[in-house]
Structures are given as structure tokens and as C-alpha cells.
Amino acid sequence: MNREDIIRMALEVGLEQDGDNFFSPKSDPQVDVHITDLETFAAIVASVRQTWVGLTDKEILADDVLRYHFGLNGGAGPVSKSGRKIVDALEAKLRSKND
Description:
mainly alpha; 9% strand; 3 strands
């Protein structure tokens, strides 16, 4: 994310620009925010990564399609070993694409 992206986003959320300072016309009293503060904030937001959370067996059995294909005992559960392997493989592929 570069400075132009940050400025564009600041303007999109309604901040107004005065040189390198930005302010909200809605705040009282008016508070200026310098572009370097916005850059620092953007870097912090960009660095936050969400932890990957895979599907639990309960979540698999709650989904009609997954339960039909991967649930034992007519879909009542538990999740079959081969079904769990398929779900794990799909999750691993998605996780690698999101890293």
C-alpha cells in the first residue's frame, strides 16, 4: 500500500485534506491527522494476519452437501476418515493460496 492508496482511502471515508494534514469535518473540535500517522496506521492494519481456522467435524456435518458426501451413518456422523482427508487437503490448498 503506497501513499496514494492511503490518501485515496482517507478521502473515501470522508476525511478532508489540507496539504499533508487530514481532518474530519464532522469532528468537534476539529482534529488534524498528519499523513505519516495515516501511513503508520495503514502499516499496522496491513501487518495483522488472521489465524487460519479449519472446519470442525460439527461444521462439516451441519452443511447439507458436506454431510451427504463425508458423513457416515447416512450423514448423521461422524465424518468419515476419507472425508476428513479431503477437507484437510482442500483447506491446506486454500491456506497456501492465502499466504
